[in-house]
Every structure is written in structure tokens, then in C-alpha cells.
Specification:
3 domains; 11 helices; Single alpha-helices involved in coiled-coils or other helix-helix interfaces; five-stranded mixed beta sheet; alpha+beta; about 375 residues; Heat Shock Protein 90
């Protein structure tokens, strides 16, 4: 709509000048204002539908008729040259073939040149230049301007499409990562429990059949069922523990690959090798959640990950650019991270950093440092 204001403002200036000079009356002024209101409405509609896939032919023809009528005001003011350009800038946002674009620009240029030539002769602004020389000159100028406007707006439409495709690709990557994790979990669960549950079912059925004829054998079978159930429970607990214990190095490599695939340049420093397992696990969760937020909630082109030991604490910092509006809002993921880090006595901070940057920072005290920093019992005073 800012573009609409930029186009319509000169038209009102020309309308006021023509009315002040006595070239037009009040009825014409009212009709022109009404026509500009209709054209502005069509402009917004053509832009919206053009970016969504293409405007209808009916809207193009109706808005073109309104534009042609308003362009007749070139007979009284040259300011109205912006009206056809205003209309054309919205029409070219819809997908059109090269031939139609050329026809649209040359047709608009020819019509405006014809009206402007008559207007120049009527206003006596052409000087000594005859009409048959003024018309080709104006036709060339109008057609060139229409061609430039069409090129710029088509380029902007392609940038808009690339922007939408990039967001769709990032969302697809996030959904694909979740789907792959679910499939992996289902495969692991099948491999873990498939054999054990089958064994339990067979042994239980056999025990039921032999309960009346051979109670001792039935009891042995039920003992096997009990052992199989306990083994299955142990395997499930081990699997769940394995899912929760995320490895820092593996997570960092996976996050780097995902971000690079999403078009985000990822720079990650070396991870200190002396960190305790529980610290490495919680930092891996911070990296995973931070990468998810980068993909879902920003338009980042660069992300930097650094893990550094400062005194008695290890500090993880994730910085990225391309923050959208409202980038300071915290979600359930950051709340969960705060709770995980708080278990080890650490803290998580997240917020805007610079003009369009975002900083996720987690500081976790090392176990040895916590013990050294514990205060000694106070002795009694002498």
C-alpha cells in the first residue's frame, strides 16, 4: 500500500492543479477521485491474487478499463502518466508469457502516447514538434518505462517465490527430522519387544494348555515368561535411557548437517574433551533445541556454536542472524532447557543480540568446581 500512496499522490497534485487552472470542474474531480478509489482497490486485489498464483482475467480487464478512463486526464495534466504505470505494476505480478508481457507494455505505451500527444497539442506543450514526431517519441518513452516497471516487479515476484520456497523447505526439513526420529524409534521398539512379546505369548499359551495335565511343566513355562518379561523391561529401560542420553559430539555434527542443508552456514568450534557425561548430555540438548529454533523461527544465513570452559563453568553460546519480529519470545522448548540445565545448577539465557541477531547461552558449573566452591563450616569464635 505504500506503493499505492506513492503513485496516487502525484495524481492528486495534478488534479488539484487542473482544477485551480479551471481546466476541469467539480463533477470531473469527484469522478476522478472515485475512479482512483476503485483503481486502488483493484491494485491491492491484483497484488494479492498475483502473489497467490495469478489474478483473474475479469479483474485485469475491469481494472484496465478504469485505468484507460483515468488516463484520459492526460489531456489536462501530465501528472496522470503515473496511472497506467501504477496499474501495470500490479498486473505483471501475475504469471504472464513473454509475448503477453511485450503486448501489454507496447499496448499501454501506445495508448498513453496517443492520449499524451493529443494532450500536448491541446495544452500547447509540444512546441514546434509536430504530432507525427511527438507520437513515436512518447510511444518509445512510455513503452520503455512500462518495460522497466514490469522487469522490476517480475524480479520482486521471483524473490517472493524464493522466500516462500525457502520457508517451505525449512518446515519440510523440520517435519522430516521428526518423522525420521519416530520411524527410528518404532524400528528400535519393534526390534526390542517383538521377540520378547512373541516368546511371552507362546510360553503363556503353552502354560495354559499344560496347567491341568502337567502343572510342574506349566510352572516352568511361566517362569520363562517372567524372565522374558523382566528382560524386555530391562531392554526398554536401556533404550529409553539411550534416547535421553544424547551424545554432544554426535549432536553437534548432526545439527551442523541439518543447518547446512537448510542453507544456514554453521561454524562450530572444538568441544573440550574433559567434560563430565551429564554436562555433555545437557549441552547436547541445548544445541538440539537451539538448532530447531534457528530453522523454525528465523531467516538465518549464519550460525556460530562455541563451547568454552571459563573457570569452574562450561559455557555454550549459539549465535544466529536473521531474527524475525518477536524473536525474544520464549517457548516450551526453552522452558524445558532451563529445567534441564537447572538440575545441574546452571542457567539458560536467550534473547536478541545486535540488530537482527539472537543469542542462546547456557552456563553449567563443573562438578569439581562446585565442590571446591562449597563454603567450609564456620568455626566457633575464640
Amino acid at each position: 500500500m505504500f506503493a499505492a500512496v506513492g503513485f496516487v499522490a502525484p495524481v492528486f497534485a495534478g488534479l488539484g492543479a487542473a482544477y485551480s487552472d479551471g481546466g476541469i470542474g467539480v463533477p470531473v474531480v469527484v469522478a476522478v477521485i472515485a475512479g482512483l478509489a476503485v483503481l486502488t482497490w483493484y491494485y491491492a486485489r491484483l497484488v494479492r491474487t498475483g502473489l497467490e498464483g495469478g489474478a483473474s482475467r475479469r479483474d485485469m480487464v475491469a481494472s484496465g478499463a478504469v485505468t484507460a478512463a483515468l488516463s484520459l486526464m492526460l489531456l489536462v495534466s501530465p501528472w496522470f502518466t503515473v496511472v497506467p504505470v501504477f496499474w501495470l505494476s500490479a498486473v505483471v505480478l501475475s504469471p504472464l508469457g513473454r509475448g503477453r508481457l511485450v503486448a501489454l507494455c507496447t499496448g499501454t505505451g501506445a495508448y498513453c502516447a496517443a492520449v499524451a500527444t493529443v494532450g500536448a497539442d491541446r495544452l500547447d506543450t509540444s512546441g514546434t514538434l509536430p504530432w507525427y514526431a511527438a507520437f513515436p517519441l512518447m510511444f518509445a518513452v512510455f513503452s520503455a518505462v512500462c518495460g522497466i516497471v514490469a522487469f522490476v516487479n517480475i524480479y520482486q515476484r521471483r524473490m517472493w517465490e524464493m522466500h516462500r520456497e525457502t520457508h517451505a523447505a525449512r518446515d519440510a526439513l523440520a517435519r522430516l527430522a521428526v518423522t525420521e526420529e519416530r520411524l527410528r524409534f518404532s524400528r528400535d521398539l519393534h526390534d526390542l519387544l517383538g521377540h520378547s512379546l512373541s516368546l511371552i505369548a507362546v510360553k503363556s499359551e503353552l502354560a495354559i494348555r499344560m496347567a491341568g495335565t502337567d502343572p510342574e511343566r506349566a510352572g516352568a513355562e511361566m517362569a520363562d515368561v517372567q524372565r522374558a518379561a523382566r528382560e524386555a523391561l530391562r531392554e526398554v529401560r536401556a533404550a529409553v535411557s539411550g534416547y535421553r542420553a544424547v551424545e554432544l559430539d554426535a549432536e553437534l555434527a548432526g545439527v551442523r548437517a541439518v543447518l547446512e542443508a537448510a542453507g544456514v552456514r554453521c561454524e562450530a568450534g572444538e568441544v573440550p574433551g574433559t567434560l563430565p557425561p551429564e554436562v555433555r548430555t545437557v549441552l547436547a540438548w541445548v544445541i538440539r533445541e537451539g538448532a530447531t529454533n534457528v530453522i523454525k523461527h528465523s531467516e538465518a544465513r549464519r550460525c556460530a556454536i562455541a563451547v568454552t570452559v571459563y573457570g569452574g563453568s562450561v559455557v555454550l553460546e549459539m549465535r544466529n542472524d536473521g531474527v524475525r519480529g518477536g524473536g525474544d519470545a520464549g517457548g516450551s522448548g526453552l522452558t524445558g532447557l532451563t529445567e534441564r540445565v537447572a538440575v545441574l545448577g546452571g542457567e539458560v539465557t536467550a534473547g536478541r543480540h545486535g540488530r537482527d541477531g539472537f543469542l542462546l547461552r547456557a552456563a553449567v558449573p563443573l562438578p569439581g568446581a562446585v565442590e571446591d566452591a562449597a563454603p567450609e563450616p564456620a568455626g566457633s569464635s575464640a
